[in-house]
Automatic annotation (TrEMBL):
Names of the cofactor(s): Mg(2+)
Entries under InterPro entries matching the protein: FTHF_cligase, FTHF_cligase-like_sf, NagB/RpiA_transferase-like
List of residues binding ATP: 7-11, 138-146
Alphabetical GO biological process terms: folic acid-containing compound biosynthetic process; tetrahydrofolate interconversion
Reactions that this protein is recorded to catalyse: (6S)-5-formyl-5,6,7,8-tetrahydrofolate + ATP = (6R)-5,10-methenyltetrahydrofolate + ADP + phosphate
MF terms in GO: 5-formyltetrahydrofolate cyclo-ligase activity; ATP binding; metal ion binding
This protein's UniProt keywords: ATP-binding, Ligase, Magnesium, Metal-binding, Nucleotide-binding
Name under which the protein is recorded: 5-formyltetrahydrofolate cyclo-ligase
Binding residue positions for substrate: 53, 58
Keyword ATP-binding annotated: yes
UniProt feature coiled coil, ranges: none
Enzyme's top EC category: ligase
Length: 202
């Protein structure tokens, strides 16, 4: 099968699997994920963390966000860049941040330059994904947003720690066919596992 079609069929498959989880499973898995994340020493020590608001049946991050707030961490969300297509900005998120729906139908903080994150200050970046494999290869929604963001980590420009968040069912036993712009993840946390890979930086 053509690589593009293979990647698309993995996306379709996993998105369907995620959709089939019951409400109870969704809640239990989200809770397990949050507790597992908070067991990690670097996450405990981190001060500034970027995360995302779940959409399209992604594992729910609200519990984790609430726990981070309770630990007085500073939390950021991705915002579609207003004039650099394919790029993300990160803006601070607290319980009274006004949210708007963006053109991809995802909630994001209203643009406010005063709460913009400088990536050199970021400690942890939690990353959404559709599928991952045994090498840390990541398949996203197909916008290339996080590949562009991860590039700055891959080249050593920034030293934040990228961590994918996913359900266990998003793991692919067969290697995901990669494209030259794909950046593998050094870590993924699922409800039942914390995966680590040694990724050689550029
Ligand atoms: N929660 C969350 N926020 C995120 C991301 C994400 O994956 N998850 N993104 C990560 O990059 C960015 C948004 N990326 C997106 C890229 C493409 C589509 C999109 O085209 N959706 C279509 C078709 C999807 C398909 O069938 O492949 C749709 O939903 O109809 C949506 C979001 C920024 N924020
Ligand atoms: N670093 C980059 N520079 C320029 N273009 C890029 C870069 N990374 C990805 N792209 C472009 O983005 C498009 C989507 O890439 P891909 O299908 O790998 O996205 P994805 O990883 O699934 O999505 P996302 O990262 O948004 O979750 C591709 O057409 C590719 O050309």
């Amino acid at each position: 099968m053509d690589k593009y079609l293979k990647r698309q069929s993995i996306r379709d498959n996993v998105r369907m699997q995620r959709r089939m989880l019951t409400k109870k499973q969704q809640y239990q898995y989200a809770k397990m994920l949050a507790l597992r994340a908070l067991k990690d020493k670097r996450i405990q020590r981190a001060n500034k963390l970027a995360i995302f608001l779940s959409f399209d049946n992604e594992i729910n991050t609200n519990l984790l966000i609430n726990m981070l707030w309770k630990e007085t961490k500073i939390v950021y969300l991705p915002v579609l860049h207003p004039f650099a297509p394919g790029h993300l900005l990160f803006m601070q998120y607290n319980p009274n941040t006004p949210l708007v729906i963006n053109r991809l139908n995802i909630y994001e903080p209203q643009l406010d330059v005063t709460t913009l994150l400088l990536l050199n200050q970021l400690d942890i970046c939690f990353i959404p994904l559709v599928a991952f494999d045994n090498y840390g290869n990541r398949l996203g929604m197909g916008g290339g947003f996080y590949d562009r963001m991860l590039y700055s980590w891959y080249t050593g420009e920034f030293t934040f720690c990228p961590i994918g968040l996913a359900y266990d069912c998003q793991y692919q036993t067969e290697a995901i066919p990669t494209e030259k712009w794909d950046i593998p993840l050094p870590e993924v946390i699922t409800p039942s596992c914390h995966w680590h890979w040694n990724i050689a930086l550029k």
